[in-house]
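ok trying again, last paste got cut off:
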Amino acid sequence: MLIFKMKKMKKLYIKISMIIISLTAFTSCSDDFVNVDSNDVNSEDFFNSEEDYQNALIGAYDLLQSTYINVMLGEIASDNTLAGGESATDVIGIQEIDDMIHTPVNSNLRDLWGWMYGGVNRANFILEFQDKIDFSGKDQVIAQARFLRAYYYFELVKWFGDIPLAIDKQILFGEESSYERSPASEVYSLIEQDLIYAADKLPSVPAETGRVTKGAAQALLGKAYLYQDKFSEAAQILETLIQSGTYSLVTDYNTIFEEEGENNVESVFEVQYTDLEGAGFGCLQCSEGNIAVGFSGVRNYEGPDFTSGFSFNVPVQEAYDAFDNDDPRRDIAILDINAWAASTGATFGTGYEHTGYFNHKYIPRAGSTAAQGELNYEMNYRAIRYSDVLLMAAEANNRKASADDAKAQNYLNQVRARAFGNSSQASSSTGATLTQEIWDERNFELAMEGHRFFDLVRTGEASSKISGFISGKHEVFPIPQTEIDISGLTQNAGY
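nice, full thing came through this time. structure:
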């Protein structure tokens, strides 16, 4: 599996690459990726074999594991969860994002920026030297690199808006002052180009578990179109993906987030994690495990099925109550710890902003980790599920200029039928009513998976649903102050 190769290649990749991540040079958690002895190996004696390209590609995949922070903060910034933790000062950056008082010196946003640009730089390292040699299958290596660059840039543009754009070239230390912020439209244009290329070159079925596919490229392209209100384009590419028949909904929703549910027929793209190598708080991005899982666990837990965590990312009562009582997705998404304790005899401690609820989808499971448990859970992140594809297609068909509400209803109702086991919740709505139903359904289906904040922003609902959200400011997050100081980049409005 790719994930195991990633583990073995991490140290080698750090040693041989010339990726000096200038945009993270002054962030402490990124030091392991910055302090590289570039005299060991350089581009002149690298990229001379297929193995070199494959090794560099594994390095580009590796930064996907750092997106745990994107997922966790995407819920905490929304109306679904509170920061939680031990106290009001426990990981202050997370607390600030929850309260919508984050500033350019927020360390968690600085990490997110740095790690995502690290991914961009690693992909660009390959693309900069894509023509150095030729070998069979190189087009698929390049296609994977372009998908990964698009993925990292998509995360950056949705978090920060206009950002520096590097194309087929690393951003090296000392060059940071030469880059300016590019309009988001230009970033999206590159994302589209990369994903169109990737979708054309990649196979429908991966050669190894964890590799990106044609379907992943099509799904991410559809999402990128949707974020730009390009509804006709989104509808077209998502329809192509749906009609391919490559993916389908898992019959039993209960199994999706269990170990046996990883990389199933509903999984369009998953970030692969393993528990074979742990990390410490000084280098969270060094972990091979899903750190967000430990962060979301129940504090001082003793009992069956689960293990303890740090009680961050705690769902609120309103998120729990939004579900119909007979919607089985509620208890899969949100664990009622009091009810669970009453039925099992489990005991637990309470942390800051304790609500009685926890993220059930990404909660630490008992026996799921061999290394430093609190940071190193082997639970994959389901980055794009087929149900997400169906709901995106429903929205695109409903909102495009020549609306096709019948098709939108069909896709929405497929998701509802799987959830309830029958057609009792089938929608016959049209127009704006149907639009709202699709948006609400996204929260029921995808709750606790990191999409909520950005869905609220792109649909214009954030200011009415997120406490402290200021329109014209909080749609994007501040450019880290270190980047302003280093490169002279302009800051987002309001910060």
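cool. The beta strands are 81-84, 163-164, 181-182, 267-271, 312-315, 334-336, 357-359, 381-385. Residues 3-41 have pLDDT under 50 and may be disordered.
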